[in-house]
Amino acid sequence: MTDDHTQTRAGFIALIGEPNAGKSTLLNQMVGAKVSIVTHKVQTTRARIRGIAMEGAAQLVFVDTPGIFRPRRRLDRSMVAAAWGGVSDADVIVLLIEAHRGLTDGVQQILDNLRETAGDRPAALAINKIDRVNPEILLSLTQQMNEAYPFAQTFMISAQKGRGTDALRKYLAETVPEGPWLYPEDQLADLPMRMIAAEITREKLTLRLHEELPYQLTVETEAWEDRKDGSARIDQIVYVARAGHKGIVLGHKGETIRAVGKAAREELTDFLGRPVHLFLTVKLRENWLNEAERFTEMGLDFNDG
């Protein structure tokens, strides 16, 4: 806790960028715990997950937005709307780009939108994956990006290795507005535990399965029972949009869903710090991509689609 003479600060920070730029990895690095799912696939972050980090007397509330891309389906459009909604709510904006990809068409489109939505709020540039390019390219990219947009500060980081993230966290702590903290000091994220549990299972499915399938399924925590022995029983449903997908998710003699359940249970046990009994059921729900209720479960607005 801070003493009475220390002025507390608190604010929302929107992490924006193209899919796979490393936003979830950076969020988890900043918070010091896994609150946003990280996979090698794009578009894995659906809802605006808020991770909370303490830096001195400042509370930093990170809004990890879905990657901004050209939307094709209702779910895509809702995800992009959620991303820009995160920018509208933020006190500080951090644009994350990949060092080896530079100023892509997608980044240029984000910059164009940022001019319209950022107003007078400070925006910092974080160039990620700096170990993939040589210093000359980084210097040139920094100059190019700052000519394209008036960034308040530029940071060279490796979100995965934690390089440069301390300087970014310190800058954010000095930049968020003065005011009382927004959440209890020991809280990591404002997502309900049921949703975090569903996200963890969805991550395991995404890692296990390939092609378009992961974006055609969703996971919901149907029931959560805290048992007297300190353990938790969690029942989840994996909804698939096509009949053929059910067999893929289950796998030969149920081996895929068993492996997913085991990996999710182990991570949930570690995350909660107590034993977890996880039960997964796979159900066909052909129209879930067009159901308002499913979007609400993911923290998205159906009407934005």
**Overall average pLDDT:** 80
Neighbour order of strands in the largest sheet: 2-3-1-4-5-6
* Total of helices: 9
Q: List the helices and strands in order.
A: EHEEHEHEHEHHEEHHEH
Helix share, percent: 25-40%
CATH architecture of the largest domain: 3-Layer(aba) Sandwich
Count of structural domains:
2
Question: CATH superfamily assignment of the largest domain?
Answer: P-loop containing nucleotide triphosphate hydrolases
Biggest sheet record: 6 strands, mixed
CATH topology of the largest domain: Rossmann fold
Radius of gyration, in Å, reads: 20 Å
Strand tally: 9
- Strand percent estimate: 15-25%
CATH class of the largest domain: Alpha Beta
- Secondary-structure-based class equals alpha/beta
Question: How does the overall form come out from the CA principal axes?
Answer: globular
Distance between the termini: 42 Å
Low-confidence segments, given as residue ranges, are: 36-47
Domain Era-type G: 9-178
Pfam families: KH_2, MMR_HSR1
Family: Belongs to the TRAFAC class TrmE-Era-EngA-EngB-Septin-like GTPase superfamily. Era GTPase family.
Main location: cytoplasm
